[in-house]
Amino acid sequence: MEDFVERKFGDLTVRIDRTQCIGTSNCMNVAPEVFEFDEEGIVSFKGEAADIQRERLTEACSVCPVDALFVIDASGKQLVP
């Protein structure tokens, strides 16, 4: 699997840096409909892009203690971390 994976949620893009994830599941606690562990114990996206509020998606990414999750808006501005 690639080191970085991305998915669009409305006008936001979420990027997972698989090399940084330490598997705390903090993001899953906030947004279980978006994130899950893969077979390696690293965070990944669930099947289809979930319908989730922008604020909760941003919060789910911001609680990562190692900054493995990035949120980028439509203009290219990085919102998290």
Helices and strands in order, then pairings?
Blueprint: E1 4-9, E2 12-17, H1 26-30, E3 35-37, E4 43-45, H2 54-62, E5 69-72, E6 78-80
Antiparallel strand pairs: 1-2, 2-5, 3-4, 5-6
Written description of the protein model:
It is a single chain. By secondary structure, this protein is α+β, with helices and mostly antiparallel strands. It has one domain (4-80): Alpha-Beta Plaits (2-Layer Sandwich), CATH 3.30.70.20. 17% of the residues lie in helices and 31% in strands. It has a four-stranded antiparallel sheet with strand order 1-2-5-6, covered by helices on one side. Strand 3 and strand 4 form a beta hairpin. The longest helix is centred in the last third of the chain and has 9 residues, at 54-62. The chain is globular.
